[in-house]
Amino acid sequence: MRAMEFARFGGPEVLEEVELPDPEPGPGELLIDVEAAGINFADVRQVAGVYAPPGSLPHVPGSEVIGRTADGRRVMGFAPRGYVSKALLPEKAAIPVPETLGAGQALALLVQGLTAWHLLRSSARLQPGESVVVHSAAGGVGTLAVQLAKEFGAGRVIGTASSPEKRELAVSLGADVAVDGAAGGYVQRVVEANLGRPVDIVLDAVGGRVFTAAQDALAPFGRLIMYGGSSGEETPPIDVWTLSERNVSVGGFWLRQIMGAGFERPLGELFELTAAGKLKPQVGGEYALSDAAAALKDLAERRTVGKLVLVP
């Protein structure tokens, strides 16, 4: 089978295309011909050696695939190696995918969709009418979080993004307004976007100085949920006494921790919303498997929107 692997840590350029033996399914495993593999920012960090580094090198990155079994079933799921033309999935965790759903859309719902769902439902516990700020609102999680926040009853939804084009995308997907997400002047811009009031919920994938600034934009009983650190900046320690004095909360979310804990219900809801046209997963780009390095470079340099996929 074809695969992309890295034998040393570094930038996306360390990825190389190789031929590996086809995986042999064991008991309870399915071998699938990969239709598409998902790309995530975590892959950039893993190749660099700073995020869940593998136990040994060389290593094939990636964690999510969609494809067909030998008997023609179309399924997707989490795979230990994703940047491949053939992959193994645990049979009990293989998720049937409707033929009407594009491969990129399906993969967007698997990781980014589940993340957005849990950020709003499980971590922030959004209540009807509350204001929500979505950082990186043109990204894979952000584009879905903007839409889901509205669907789940949020009052005012504010997106942040780095360019006018990305901010326009956030508004087109349902954000009431979108602003520059840079740390300088963050609080003023966000509060103004919320009609002069502090905000109830902030979903942060940036970290660093933006994460610190977001704390100061929270209303009493506001919640700031961190689920990524795309800025690469070190995030300063949290002053818990300040949180206490202001009656605000800071939390975190990592999908990996709940991958094996029944995601059928939220994923089923995401499928239903997509089928009904109420949720529109954004596929920002399809790359050939051999172009994985270019895909990761584009993602790392924030030139992309929505979900990126590799097509073997």
Task: Explain the overall architecture.
The chain is of the alpha/beta class. The protein folds into 2 domains: 2-97 and 282-311, Quinone Oxidoreductase, Chain A, domain 1 (Alpha-Beta Complex), CATH 3.90.180; 114-256, 3-Layer(aba) Sandwich (Rossmann fold). It has helices at 41-48, 103-123, 140-151, 164-172, 186-193, 208-215, 240-246, 264-275, 292-300, and strands spanning 2-6, 15-19, 29-39, 64-68, 74-78, 86-90, 95-96, 132-134, 157-161, 177-180, 199-204, 218-226, 249-252, 283-288, 307-311. The strands form 3 sheets. Strands 3, 4, 5, 6, 7, 14 and 15 form a 7-stranded mixed sheet that branches. α2 (103-123) crosses α3 (140-151) and α2 crosses α8. The longest helix has 21 residues, at 103-123. The radius of gyration is 19 Å and the shape is globular. It starts with a strand and ends with a strand. The mean pLDDT is 94. This is Zinc-binding alcohol dehydrogenase family protein. Residues 10-310 form the Enoyl reductase (ER) domain. It comes from Nonomuraea typhae.
Q: What is Rg?
A: 19 Å
CATH class of the largest domain: Alpha Beta
The biggest beta sheet, please? Answer: 7 strands, mixed
Instruction: Indicate the low-confidence ranges by residue numbers.
Output: none
Summarize the model shown.
With 312 residues, this protein is an alpha/beta fold. The chain has two domains: 2-97 and 282-311, Medium-chain alcohol dehydrogenases, catalytic domain (Quinone Oxidoreductase, Chain A, domain 1, Alpha-Beta Complex); 114-256, Rossmann fold (3-Layer(aba) Sandwich), CATH 3.40.50.720. 30% of the residues lie in helices and 26% in strands.
